[in-house]
Design brief:
Four copies of one chain form a homotetramer.
Chain A: H1 12-17, H2 24-35, E1 38-40, H3 45-48, E2 60-62, H4 64-77, E3 88-91, E4 107-113, E5 118-124, E6 128-131, E7 136-142, E8 145-150, E9 154-157, E10 163-167, E11 173-179, H5 181-187, E12 192-194, H6 209-214, E13 219-221, E14 235-236, H7 238-253, E15 264-269, E16 283-289, E17 298-300, E18 304-310, E19 313-317, E20 320-324, E21 329-332, E22 338-342, E23 346-352, H8 354-359, E24 365-367
Amino acid sequence: MTDTWEDVNDHSEVENSMQPEDTPELRELYAGFERENLIPLWTQLDDLMPMAPNPKAVPWVWRWSKLQPLAERAGDLVPVGRGGERRAIGLANPGMGGRAYISPTLWAAIQQLGPHETAPEHRHSQNAFRFVTSGEGVWTVVNGDPVRMSRGDFLLTPGWNFHGHHNETDQSMTWIDGLDIPFAYQMDTGFFEFGSERVTDYATPNFSRSERLWCHPGLRPLSGLHNTVNSPIGAYRWENTDRALTDQLLLEDEGHPATVEQGHAAVRYVNPTTGGDVMPTIRAQFHRLRPGVATAPRREVGTSMFQVFEGEGLVELGDAEYHVGHGDMFVVPSWVRYSIKAENQLDLFHFNDHPIFEKLALARTHIEGEAR
Amino acid sequence: MTDTWEDVNDHSEVENSMQPEDTPELRELYAGFERENLIPLWTQLDDLMPMAPNPKAVPWVWRWSKLQPLAERAGDLVPVGRGGERRAIGLANPGMGGRAYISPTLWAAIQQLGPHETAPEHRHSQNAFRFVTSGEGVWTVVNGDPVRMSRGDFLLTPGWNFHGHHNETDQSMTWIDGLDIPFAYQMDTGFFEFGSERVTDYATPNFSRSERLWCHPGLRPLSGLHNTVNSPIGAYRWENTDRALTDQLLLEDEGHPATVEQGHAAVRYVNPTTGGDVMPTIRAQFHRLRPGVATAPRREVGTSMFQVFEGEGLVELGDAEYHVGHGDMFVVPSWVRYSIKAENQLDLFHFNDHPIFEKLALARTHIEGEAR
Amino acid sequence: MTDTWEDVNDHSEVENSMQPEDTPELRELYAGFERENLIPLWTQLDDLMPMAPNPKAVPWVWRWSKLQPLAERAGDLVPVGRGGERRAIGLANPGMGGRAYISPTLWAAIQQLGPHETAPEHRHSQNAFRFVTSGEGVWTVVNGDPVRMSRGDFLLTPGWNFHGHHNETDQSMTWIDGLDIPFAYQMDTGFFEFGSERVTDYATPNFSRSERLWCHPGLRPLSGLHNTVNSPIGAYRWENTDRALTDQLLLEDEGHPATVEQGHAAVRYVNPTTGGDVMPTIRAQFHRLRPGVATAPRREVGTSMFQVFEGEGLVELGDAEYHVGHGDMFVVPSWVRYSIKAENQLDLFHFNDHPIFEKLALARTHIEGEAR
Amino acid sequence: MTDTWEDVNDHSEVENSMQPEDTPELRELYAGFERENLIPLWTQLDDLMPMAPNPKAVPWVWRWSKLQPLAERAGDLVPVGRGGERRAIGLANPGMGGRAYISPTLWAAIQQLGPHETAPEHRHSQNAFRFVTSGEGVWTVVNGDPVRMSRGDFLLTPGWNFHGHHNETDQSMTWIDGLDIPFAYQMDTGFFEFGSERVTDYATPNFSRSERLWCHPGLRPLSGLHNTVNSPIGAYRWENTDRALTDQLLLEDEGHPATVEQGHAAVRYVNPTTGGDVMPTIRAQFHRLRPGVATAPRREVGTSMFQVFEGEGLVELGDAEYHVGHGDMFVVPSWVRYSIKAENQLDLFHFNDHPIFEKLALARTHIEGEAR
C-alpha cells in the first residue's frame, strides 16, 4: 500500500465549495431524509472519511506516583467480591468522552488486591492480561490452574477462561490490567458469566501447570499438538524476558544482528503453538533501550500503550514531549508520530491492538528514515 | 466456546449490592480519580461488560418506496463532482446517535447518478461494494478497468483502489453501496486520496478485464498466481448468481444435498485466489427461499444487512415482525434473533461484517434447533 | 535459495582422491560394515548427493500415432472388468528400469473403453485425473456423481473416491490418465479397495452435480463452506478453458497484462475452495502459444508431462529437439532444460508434481533471462 | 478417510482370473507395447497398487555395541577432509537393495570425528540433523554460528546451510546423523556445494547465537518476525528435553493431563516461528516411558526410526520382538504394526518422515483401541 500520509491535504475546503445551495426545495429534501432515517454523505465526508486517521483519543501520560496511592486508597474504601468483581481503576483517555478507554480498542487499569482478599472467578469473551509492575504474593487462577504473579511477569487470561485472584500475604499488591473492552463494547461482541465466589484452587506453586507443559524452549508436548487461538502459557516470567533482552544487547556488542534497531532490544510475547500473538486482539512486547538511544520516529494505525518498567526517558508524542519514569504509562493513538529516548537504560512494557488491523489488512506503518 | 446466552441473568442486581457506601472519603477518592483521568470499573461493569451483546443499533427496515424517490430528488438538487464526491444517501440506524451508520461497523447508502454525469475518481482505505437493485447504463472504473453495472450485479471497489462512475444514458440510475466506514472511523484506520476529476477510461465494455481474466470457473490465470487480500473480480454478474441458485434448488428436487437448509439456496461471493471472502471486513451472499420456507431463527455476533431483490416475505427481528418487498432493506444488529419467511419466491442480497469477528475469534452463532 | 546450478562442478574427482588406501585392515573394516548392514558415505557421496539433480528418468516423447492403435487393439484382445480393472496402458520411461513410470512420481497412461463396456468401481489413495484427447460418450461416476467425458475436458478422481466408467456409445473411446502411482509405490502410501462391479449410477447428464454446485465463477455454495484438500469439481470443461485462453490473448492484444509471457496464455486448474492445486500431489495446467512463440528455456525441480492437444511445435528437451503434433506426449525430468516453440497455434495440456516440492520447500526454478 | 486396512483382502486372486488368454495376437500386442515403451496396467496392478502399503524396507535393529566400534575403527583407517567430506557410516535396511537407506525417505548414520579433526564445510539441499548419543567436545558451525554438541542434544543443519564440524579434544566423538537423502535422491531434488575446507569460526561458546536469540520460552525477537521454513534454533539442549519430560510425568502424578498416553511422556522438537516441525521433511521427538509401560500398538504411513538413549525395553515390530538397550536403533517401515515396552525407565529419541505425508494428505494412522 503506497504510503501517502505525508502529502495529506485537507479536503474540507474543496468539499465546502460543493455543498448545494440552500433553497426551500433542499430543506424539504433534507427533512425527507430525516423522516426516513437517512443522512447524505456529502455533508459528512470530511469528518467520516478523513485524509488520514484523526483519532478522538489524545496522547496522554498517567503518572504512577498518582495511580498507585489512589489504588491503595480504593483498597481501604471499596470492597471486592461478587458484584464488585475487581478493584480495578480504568485509565480514561480525555478524548474518549468520559469512558474508561485509552483508545477505541483498549482498556488499561491499575488493579489492587488487599491482604488475604479473593477476587471471585468469572469469565468473559474479552481478552485480558496482567503485567506486574512490582510486588508479589498474588496467584491468579486461570481455568483452575494457579499462576503466581511476581514483578515483571506478563500473565494471560484469554477470552472465556474462568479466572480469579487471591492475595496470600499481609500486604496489598497492585498490577496493571489490559483488555479489549472498548473494542468488544463498541463492536457488540461481549459475553460474561459468573463463576465460583472463591477461587477454585488455593495452591501456591511457583510455576503453573501451563508453564511446566509449555515453557521448555523449542519443545512442544505431544499432548498439545492442536493449535490454539490463544497462547496456552499462563505466565511469561521476568527472568526469561530479562535474559532475552540481555542476550540481544550482548550479541549486538559482539557484532551480530539481534536487535530491532541499534541499541534497541525487543521481544514479543507469543503463542508457542503458532509463533503468533498471544491473543487475537492484543499484541504484547517488551523493549530495552541502551542509555542515549532513541527509537526512530514512527506512525502506526492502531493504539500503543507503554509502561516504564525501569529507567527514565523522554517521549515525543505528536507535538509534545514528556519525561517518564518507573510505572508511568503513556498512550499513542492511531497515526500519532512518536519516539522514545532513553536517559539511562530504559525498560518498557508495551501492548497494542495491531493484530486486529493486520488481520483485516488495515495496518500501515511509517518509520522515519533516520533515527536521531 | 460453550453457548450460554440462553441462561443469561442480569448482573446489575448483584453488582448494585456491592457498591461502596457513599461517604465523604469515597467522594474524595472519586474526585481523585476524576482529576487523574481514572474511572473505576465497579461503577461501570454492568454496562461495559454485559452478559450478552446489548447493541445500541436497533433492528430497522428502510423502505425502497421511500428511498428511491428521495434519491431521485437529490439528483435534481445536489451536484456531483470533486468535493461532493458522491450523491450517496446513508441509512442511519436510529440507535446510532445521529450517524449514518447501520451498525458500529457498516455503512449502507443509496447512490444516484444522473444522465451523463461522472462521479470523479478517488480512493480510500475503506472497503466498498455496490449492489444494483435495478437499472443499467453506468460503468464504474476501478483502477482503470471499466466495469459495467447492471441489475443484480455485485461489484467491488476494495480499499485503496481508485474508482469513479459515469452514466452513459439519458436516464438516472440508483444502486446501493456498502462500506465499512463506521468501523474505519471508530478504529481510526481511514485514509483518503483524490484522483482524476473524470474517470480515466470512458470505454463501455460488456465485461471488465478482471472478469475476462478471473471468471472462468475452476481456472486461474498463470499471470495471477499471487494471492490477494481482496478479490480480483470487479463484477459478479446476476446471470451467474441466478443460475447457481436455480441449480441448488434443482439438485434439492433431485434428492441431493445442495441447499443450506431445506428450500433455502444460498451462495457466497468469494475471492477466487483463496476461496474466502471478497474483502477482509465484508462478507456478501445471496439467498433464495422457496415460497413458504422460513429460515431457522438465529443469533449471530455482528451485523447483517439484507435487501429484498425480488419477492415478498415476513421478517422477524427480535420481537417485531415486518412485511418486506422489492428493494426494502433491513438490518439485524449483533445477537438479535431473526428469521425470514418467504411468501412467494424470495431473493435476498445480504452482507455482513462477520469476517471481522471470525478473524478475531469473536464469532458466535446460535441457530435454533428447529425451523418453524 | 541462491541458485547455483550453473557453476556446478563435478565432485567425483575431488572425492576419488580422498578414498582411503586399500589395505587388509580396510577390507576387514568394510567386511564388518557389510555384516552389520552398514555402508560408508565416503564411497557413495558423488552418486547419492550430486551437485544438481541427475535423474534416471530421461526426456522422452510418446507418439499418439503409435499409442492409439495399440490401445484400440488392446480393446479387441483384453477384457475389462473386476480384476482387470482398467484397460490402461502405462507410458514407461526408458530410464525407469522397466516400470510404467514416466518419472519417480508420476504415471501416465492411455485408457480405452469399448462400446457399452463398464470399468467397475474401485477406490485408491492414489490421486488420479483424466484428460480427454478426443471423443465423447463415456461417463465416469465419481462417488456416485456421473460426469460426462468429452474432448478437451479435464476430470478428477482424487484419492479415496470410488470411481468407475461406462461407455454409452457404439464406438470405443480413449483418453489419458495421470496418477501419482510411482510416488505412492515408492513411498509406501498406497491403499486400494474394490467397489461395485457396475457403476452405481448409469445416468448421462450433461453436467455433474459437482459442476452444478461449484462452477459458477466467484460463487461458493453456502452448503460447501468447509475447505477440502481436493477440488470438489469433477470436470473442467473445454469450453471454459478455451474461452479463458482466448481472453488472455485478446487482453494482450489490447495492451493489458494477462499472459504469462509474451504470446503465451496459460491457466491452472484449481480447487475453488482454496484457489490452490486440484489435488495435493498433482498440478494441471493448459497452455496456448501463438504461432512462432517459444517459451523461455527453464529448468525445474520435479517432472512435467505435456500432451499436444492441437497444433504443432518443436520441443527442446535437454540436448535433443523433437517435432510434436496432436496427441504426442513428452516428459521433462527434474532439472532438464526445456523450451517449447509453436509452429502454428499450439495448445498443450500439462501436468506435473510441483506441489509436492513446493510443500516441502524443495522447489527450485531457473528461467533463462531471455526468451529466444 | 475411513480406515479399512484391517479387512484387506488380496486382490491378486481376482486379478489373475482376469488376465487375457495367451494368444499369438496378444503376444504381438505386448511386443508392440514394448517397442513403444508401454506397459499394461492389468499385468501390474496387484504389485503397483496394493490393498495396503507393502514396503520393501523391513523392520530392523542396529546394535550400538556393533556400530560404535566400527565407527572408531573407521577413525583409524579413513581420512576426513575435502572429498571424503564426512566419516559417516550409513545404516542400510536389508530390504532396500544395497543402498544405505533405512527406508525410501530417510538416511541414518553414525558419524565419527577424531581428536582435533575438522570436517570441512559444505551445503546441500538435503535436510540434516544430529543427535548426540554420548560424548562432547565437538562444535558444528552452521552458517557461521558455532554450536556445541553434547550428550542428548538435538542439532539442526537444515537444507542449504553451510556446515562443518571440528573436534576440540584429545578424544574422538561419535553421534548419529539423520537426513532425507533417499527422498532427495529418488525424487531428484538434490543440490550440493562445497564450502570452506576449514570451519569458518573455531570459537567454542557454550551457546550458539541461534539459541541466545531464540531459546527464551514464549519470547520471539522483534528482529526475527519473519517466519522461516526451518527452525532457526541450532541446538535443542538435553537439559530442556529432560526437564520437559520430567514435568509431564510429575503433572501426571498430580492428576493432570500432560502425557500422550498413561506413563508415556513425549515432546516434539519444533520451529518456534510456527510451532511446526523443525524441517519440512523430518519430524523429531523424544519419548520417556515409565517402567512397565507399553505404547498402544499402532500402524502409520511413513517410516519411524528410534534410538534408545537410556534404559532398556522390548520392541514389537510386525511379527518379531527385540530387546533393545543404550544406543540401539530400530526402524519401523510404513504400515508395520509396532509397540514399545519399557523394562526400566526408557528414553527414546525418535525421528520420522510424517511431515511429508501430512502435507500431501497421505497420512494415515491406526492406533489399537487398548494399550496392553
